[in-house]
Structure formats: structure tokens, C-alpha cells
Q: What sequence folds into this?
């Protein structure tokens, strides 16, 4: 569990000790919560739990003013909601795109993923994304 020696402070980049302390103090509970949020899908739950820690690492100031545990669970819940919304929106849109292009749905999914990665890289190169 993070303590005074490893707690995040506003304006400071999170260090490895802080991230390790967060994981050690909340890792098991976070994974159990993620499993609940992902309806038992272990792969998605592990991804969710990992992304939660990555967000804490990128934005330690968000947890500096409150207890880390509840903050991590709020981040996990928000990520799960975002994930569900994205999963619900994609099938219809990608199915329509695949039909319009005359390609299999899997190909449309793969191309959409590649396009999003290319967009993310382009935004990062311009300093517009994390």
C-alpha cells in the first residue's frame, strides 16, 4: 500500500516505487473487481486491471488528493464502461463497413484497428496525445 515515502505528489512524474506499491497494495482486489466488471472474462479483466495501473502511473496527481484504493476502483469502473460502450458500437458500424466494402467483418476489424493505431501514433508525434 502506498505510504508517505511512495505516495504520488502533484507535479511529480510517478516513479516505479509508487506504481509497485499501488500494485502490491491493490493488485488482487483490483483484478477481482475487474473480473466482476468483465463478467468473468479473465483476459479482458487482466487488460482492465493493467490499464488501471497505467492510468495511475500517467496521472499520479489524480490520486494524490484521495486514497489510492477507491480512486483505482473508480478508474477501473470508468474504463469498463468505456470498453462496453466501444464494444457495443463497433459491431454494427464495422459490419456495415464490411458489407459496403465487400470484405469479411474480420478484415474490417483488423483495418480499423490498424487505422486507430496509425492515428494514435500520428497524434503522439504531434504532441496531441499521451
A:
Amino acid at each position: 500500500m502506498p505510504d508517505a515515502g511512495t505516495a504520488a505528489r502533484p507535479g511529480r512524474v510517478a516513479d516505479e516505487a509508487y506504481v509497485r506499491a499501488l500494485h502490491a497494495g491493490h493488485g488482487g482486489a483490483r483484478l477481482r473487481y475487474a473480473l466482476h466488471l468483465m463478467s468473468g472474462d479473465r483476459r479482458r479483466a487482466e487488460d482492465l486491471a493493467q490499464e488501471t495501473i497505467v492510468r495511475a502511473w500517467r496521472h499520479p496527481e489524480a490520486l494524490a488528493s484521495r486514497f489510492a484504493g477507491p480512486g483505482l476502483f473508480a478508474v477501473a469502473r470508468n474504463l469498463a464502461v468505456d470498453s462496453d460502450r466501444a464494444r457495443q458500437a463497433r459491431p454494427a458500424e464495422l459490419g456495415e463497413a464490411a458489407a459496403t466494402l465487400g470484405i469479411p467483418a474480420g478484415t474490417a476489424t483488423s483495418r480499423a484497428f490498424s487505422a486507430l493505431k496509425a492515428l494514435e501514433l500520428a497524434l503522439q508525434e504531434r504532441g496531441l496525445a499521451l
